[in-house]
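Now for a concrete sample entry.
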Amino acid sequence: MKKKLRKLMISLFIMTVAFSLTACNSNSAHSNTNGKRTIKIGYLPITHALPLYIEKELEKGQSRHFNLELIKFGSWPELMDALNTGRIDGASVLVELAMKAKEQGVDLKAVALGHRDGNVVVTSHNIHSVKDLKGKNFAIPHKFSTHNLLLYRIRLNVTYLTLKAVHGSMLHHGGAGYLQQSDPSRRLRESYFLANLTPTVKHLEKVLNR
């Protein structure tokens, strides 16, 4: 099971990228007194936005036909609202948020990848394996973040494995397993409770198959 979870994490990490987006119909860019166009790019103060800081630093002492203005936001909803309504020209955002906006008809396009190194789940020092995460609380950057999708996938895989093991136990014990007070029968009921516990298997599959 550890190998499967490790492969799952690596796969999701490789798929995780941060997009730099531009609003195709944005009207927020304007000219300064020096005649240069000012391009407003929104960001959150996290490592995803590092390429923007580097670009801003490289701007110093160089002759360019535009000025780069970085605008800091306090939350993803704030940033996406500014991008979707054209108050800024572009933004460094989670790829899932960009895809969601595109699905809703917002005229956006990806112009650059912020990174290809993926994201990680950071834990306290007393967490040494996936097993230690039982009963713990997680803080996630957004419901559509890869961190949350990774946790959903782990939860779904655990439920699948539990159902498979319990069904195997029922077949192994034969008719005796169907007695109400038998251990196989009790474990079967408990596994169905796990499958229907919020978020349910149906909900997890729907989210992960979008």
In short: Helices lie at 2-15, 50-59, 76-84, 95-103, 146-173, 183-195, 201-208. The chain has two domains: 17-113, 130-208.
